[in-house]
């Protein structure tokens, strides 16, 4: 199921548990690990039945076991799970088990993988890290949802009696749910729907908010892990399970909820967040200074201006952030509301603050959607120019938070490219740009496209990023042909 490169080896220590380290010096882009998923399953809340084999929508069931959905294109699914219900211990269980309780699908698949001697050992590697059930029950996480959609229906289904050696209790089932969540990546099916893909090695990598690897996932749900930056022999292989465009407090909150982990990586301990100031506030005392959090990023410390040393109490910061967070939720996709929020919070927050970035991304995507919808009408140059400006604001932050080969930065470059090309073509058509100015802008576009393609060159062809590369190449061809036409090359 896993294919390790000889460039890495397994290691173990108290702090990180089982992990991987580089054996030799490794170049950026080199493949470290390739892995098939242990299981691919719908999200807990998914109500649409999906084929047990290919995970596309299915409205028909497997004729043999009559329990799992199986689409018209697939002739069979996992032998063990099919036999279990067709003629094995599960044959007396009601056939509408999944139709009635589709939320149990992921856990059911895991239980059958555990029952199957061929896959049991692989599953058990997931169990090496303990699950703190008390913590999970009291937290604001998924306990209630698991209880209602998964654990209770499963306990009532007769499956527990059909799998006696597993000694399944509500607690065991809850712990399995947590293990599935903690070891899953969001994978995308061919129909564009997202699913949970559980990987044993890939998902077991320790977390760092500035990962030194990139995870690539193709349409068959295969994972490839490659180096994002050059690695030295002995370096620990890290992955990131959070969104790098979130500020430290947001990332830590999300990591606690989704992965039950407290991060203390170099970015989390750096109040300037790698010099981006993504969580910094404007100083209220002096005009030019920014306040950064003094003690741990858990919010226990006050904020102090790096210029004038003025203190900004933590409660004030939290108040601003909570208020802005609520306002963002209330904005509900309204362009003007976002623009006025931007004006308001630019007075209080560092220009790179994660909340401002969030607002800017919202505005840019509204403008992009509007451009697509009104493609018949003349797009407004002012709005196009605004989109270019917002996309360009995001670039330096995206570059800084994920060093090396970065899909995040590649996508940000692509968004910028689309907006730029649209704007300059219109400006040239309306003679706002002369030929020389147009050519100069096209050259910028060409550079941006090449940089984005370069960042995506290690991604599989049959993946979302592979298709993005094709799209950027098309854009680059158009730019190059205009450069030939007007630039005399
Ligand atoms: Zn299928
Ligand atoms: Zn079947
Ligand atoms: Zn961190
Ligand atoms: Zn100050």
From TrEMBL:
InterPro entries: SET_dom_sf, SET_SmydA-8. Signal peptide: none annotated. PANTHER family: RE22408P-RELATED (PTHR46455:SF6), SET AND MYND DOMAIN CONTAINING, ARTHROPOD-SPECIFIC, MEMBER 4, ISOFORM A (PTHR46455). This is SET domain-containing protein SmydA-8. The gene is SmydA-7.
